[in-house]
């Protein structure tokens, strides 16, 4: 009988490390300490371990592709998010498979199921994750998954999100500090977790002021809904001192509505947004906003997913929160802080 071939598990057992560590060491991954790499290589050579490329491909079924499922691909927020993900993916030698579902839960469920067998891991942003069983029923098992700006019904996957509540409180307090007492808020989609948290922050900051009051207008996180809300604000019985839009795209739509009506921002009404998309600093007047490192958010989520894929084991259920920063520009009427930002505080 011929000598039985040495397997990667044999090498791992002899070196007293995991199979994943042997794989990373022999495939040149940078996240292996040099002494461990030398040990693995020495043991593999001594045992005459010779990995078979075709067998390795069949056993791992690696596609070198990452799936990304988002609510939409339109708009600067998603462009920045994808830019951050794609930049790291290129560095890691991975491809991206993108899908969006435009607010339909059945479409998102189908998009998640369609990723089965096509990707090594998934990045998901979902407003439907709070529905009992939605992700568990539709995510391909046991595919590595990291969530972005998604609230889970029961914590089961790592998640990266923005502290939207703290950001909205910081922006509302900024507008109040300038003496504004009647504030209008343009909200986002009612089923969107980020939008709900920003509305909650606005309400909490108004309530703590005592002598201030707020009015609320609906929006959908796009320029058109911001423009519609701007027209509604103009038609209201009393014009607010300041308008806080739950994202920059709506703030820009509102700014256009005000300009059409001949109002000057911030002389006639102050205006602020949230996200700090690249366009925010180039409009006139430049937009006061809460800076979210959107590309960094995407890159950090992918970094965690790649670590999970390389480890070949379930990830710890971690909650990573990114604190936004207040960036004061011309549109709020305060003293512009060029190149500086005040970080929001968590309550």
Automatic annotation (TrEMBL):
Task: Please name the InterPro entries in this protein's record.
Answer: HTH_LacI, LacI/GalR-like_sensor, Lambda_DNA-bd_dom_sf, Peripla_BP_I
Domain HTH lacI-type: from-to ranges: 6-60
- Read off the CDD domains from this record: HTH_LacI (cd01392), PBP1_LacI_sugar_binding-like (cd06267)
Pfam families from the entry?
Answer: LacI, Peripla_BP_3
What keywords appear on the UniProt entry?
Answer: DNA-binding, Repressor, Transcription, Transcription regulation
Q: Where is the signal peptide?
A: none
Name used for this protein in its record: LacI family transcriptional regulator
What species is this protein from? Pseudoxanthomonas daejeonensis
Its lineage opens with: Bacteria, Pseudomonadati, Pseudomonadota, Gammaproteobacteria, Lysobacterales
């Amino acid at each position: 009988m011929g000598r039985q071939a040495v397997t990667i598990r044999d090498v791992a057992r002899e070196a007293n490390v995991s199979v994943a560590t042997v794989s990373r060491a022999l495939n040149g991954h940078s996240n292996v300490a040099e002494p461990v790499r030398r040990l693995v290589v020495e043991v593999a050579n001594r045992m005459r371990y010779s990995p078979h490329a075709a067998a390795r491909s069949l056993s791992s079924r690696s596609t070198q592709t990452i799936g990304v499922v988002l609510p939409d691909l339109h708009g600067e927020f998603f462009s920045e998010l994808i830019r951050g993900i794609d930049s790291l993916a290129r560095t890691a030698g991975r491809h991206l498979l993108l899908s969006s579902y435009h607010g339909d839960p059945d479409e998102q469920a189908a998009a998640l199921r369609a990723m089965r067998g096509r990707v090594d891991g998934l990045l998901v942003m979902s407003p439907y994750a709070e529905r009992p069983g939605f992700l568990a029923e539709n995510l391909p098992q046991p595919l590595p998954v990291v969530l972005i700006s998604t609230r889970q019904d029961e914590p089961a996957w790592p998640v990266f999100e923005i502290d939207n509540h703290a950001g909205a409180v910081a922006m509302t307090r900024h507008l109040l500090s300038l003496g504004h007492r009647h504030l209008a808020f343009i909200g986002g989609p009612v089923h969107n977790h980020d939008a709900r948290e920003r509305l909650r922050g606005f309400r909490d900051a108004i309530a703590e002021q005592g002598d201030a009051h707020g009015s609320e207008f609906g929006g959908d996180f796009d320029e058109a809904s911001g423009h519609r809300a701007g027209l509604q604000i103009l038609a209201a019985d009393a014009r607010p001192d300041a308008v806080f839009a739950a994202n920059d795209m709506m703030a820009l739509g509102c700014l256009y509505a005000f300009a059409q009506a001949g109002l000057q921002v911030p002389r006639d009404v102050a205006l602020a947004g949230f996200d700090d998309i690249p366009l925010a600093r180039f409009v006139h007047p430049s937009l006061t906003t809460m800076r979210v490192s959107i590309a960094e958010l995407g890159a950090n989520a992918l970094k965690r997913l790649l670590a999970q894929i390389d480890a070949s084991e379930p990830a710890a259920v971690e909650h990573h929160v990114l604190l936004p920063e207040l960036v004061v520009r011309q549109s709020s009427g305060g003293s512009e802080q060029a190149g500086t930002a005040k970080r929001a505080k968590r309550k």
